Amino acid sequence: MINLRLIKLCLVCVLVSGCADPNEEAPKSMVYLPHPENQPEFTCVKEADHLPPLDPELETRYQEVRILEKQSSVDGENINNQYQYLAEQGHWKAASRLAYRYIKGIGGPRSYSKAFHWYQHLADRNIPQGYYNLAAMAEKGLGVEQDKVATWAYLHRAAQLGSVHAQHRLGEIYFYPRNDDKTGEFYHRCALSQGHAESARALGRLHLVTGNYPKAMYFTQVAASMGLPTSMVKLDGVFRDGDYGYEKNLAHAAIYENFLNKLEYDSSLTFPELPVLCPLPPHPTMGRYNPETDQNELPE
Length: 300
Known about the structure:
Layout: H1 4-17, H2 56-69, H3 76-88, H4 92-104, H5 112-123, H6 128-140, H7 148-160, H8 164-175, H9 181-193, H10 197-209, H11 213-225, H12 229-241, H13 250-265, H14 274-277, E1 288-290, E2 295-297
Antiparallel strand pairs: 1-2
Helix pairs in contact: 2-3, 3-4, 4-5, 5-6, 6-7, 7-8, 8-9, 8-10, 9-10, 10-11, 11-12, 12-13
């Protein structure tokens, strides 16, 4: 007789998570980190400054494995084994990639405990991605007990080490749940200095809400020039319809629309020439934002 209960169990396993490892260990414990108030004061640093150098031979092999990984015919378990070999030799990018594959269940059963192991391996070496991903696991309760206090501490440590994703995430948290615009702007500006387009967009949204339209348009255009479609749409609408007191400028709107169409075919495009092609006009009553002085300036 067919065991219907077993069939249902297998279907649930496939549908929900691609089947976790039946030998998965019990949830791990997070290594204690001090509360952010007791950690060193945050200063804006770049992630690249906290990444150890990579052995050239190991990096060459890592890039070869990355190419193989993109080929659907390649044995996924073999890819994991190659990443693990590189990780054990000290290649931090391979360790990060291996942890990601365990999180997603690629090349073998999903294993949060193994992912935790490799992210902790990175954190033990003060590599920003380790702290950031451990924060994400603690927030969601993946392989560890759900822990908001640890999440908060690990996000701040990752940001201190230059994790652009942690800096952006903290900027969003300080903006909205905590209503601390000053701190949120500081984190977002730091992430933006590392090329995080969503942080530019967030700064544009903030100043739109506060009514500083020149500053809002400046950051919105920065995000658009970095290839963010939503910001390109926003600029198109502002100058097509004359929103927020700006005069209509259909020529500028047409350029924004043209770039938006290009992004639909290739989302990797950026437009560094955008500020030259579409210089932002001064707002009729507020003037134009000057990023060097962080002030709006009325034309003489």
